[in-house]
Amino acid sequence: MLIVAGEALIDMTPITHNGGMAYMPHPGGSPYNVAIGAGRLGTPTAFLGCISRDAFGQLLRSHLAASGVSLDYLKESEHLTTLALVTPSESGEFFSFYCENTADRMLYPEDLPATLPPGAALHFGSYSLVLEPGASSLELLMRREARRRLISLDPNVRPFLIPNREAYLERLLGWLELADLVKVSQADLAWLYPGKNPETIAQEWKQQGPALVIVTQGGQGALAVTGQSVLRVQAPRVSVVDTVGAGDAFMSGALSWLWEHGAWSRAALESLSSAQVTDLLNFAAKVAAITCTRAGANPPWRAELS
């Protein structure tokens, strides 16, 4: 089983309406999208987080259930749902977050499950590891479960929500010591380490603790740093509608590949051959590419991959 921990929010994406601009609500949030994507690919998945009782919260719940994701680890809150305003730009989508005192932040240590199913993997990421009180709660869970089960991490950096880059980077390096699989985008690395080569950073991160580090590079594809080599794949060519949720879809594809191939532990991750890692990258890239062909974070179902 995969347990995905983190934020759930509503992405307000722009549409043209009667000659003007309007916004359409789409369920989202990086970890939330990973859970949706994994569930649709057939991986047994549960979402761990706090969701509002408001109308948007009900939409988030129903979307999880419809995608085959378990709600067993959900907490409900009277606080409102976080909103993210999505603005297209030449370099990709820009997000403005309305998240002060919102539901997905309100996860406390006492809300964490005392035990998790044997063999379950945990995925963490994005601003849920930044905004308190939830950030400290999730980091507590990560530290508690590290080396007891497979831990994956996608920082999915949101600069708008990070007041101090150096302080954030120090915390991130601590998470790398706990994670077995790390996926990061080239755009994230450009903000974290301006002017540095992404491959070099990935190799440095590999030395911090992860068994596998993957860097997604948008239309250029992706690379992975293993114990022995650097592997690369090209991105499939598709007609892009938008790229919202593409990185999350890639992450769900990578985790689902590991589940399907029985590589559900650190030892199994370390034993993957170069051919297997390349296959993982190609599968995840295909999942991400399909997501880019439609509006919002709308990852594919397993049947669509054939």
UniProtKB/TrEMBL annotation:
This protein's UniProt keywords: ATP-binding, Kinase, Nucleotide-binding, Transferase
Looking up InterPro entries in the UniProt record yields:
Carboh/pur_kinase_PfkB_CS (IPR002173), PfkB_Carbo_kinase (IPR050306), PfkB_dom (IPR011611), Ribokinase-like (IPR029056)
PROSITE patterns named in the record: PFKB_KINASES_2
Catalytic activity, EC: 2.7.1.4
Tell me, what is one Gene Ontology molecular-function annotation carried by this entry? ATP binding
Enzyme type, top EC level: transferase
Which Pfam families did the record assign? Answer: PfkB
Statement: the UniProt record of this protein carries the keyword rRNA-binding: no
Record domain Carbohydrate kinase PfkB: where: 3-301
The family assignment reads: Belongs to the carbohydrate kinase PfkB family.
Protein's name in the database: Fructokinase
Q: What is this protein's gene name?
A: scrK_1
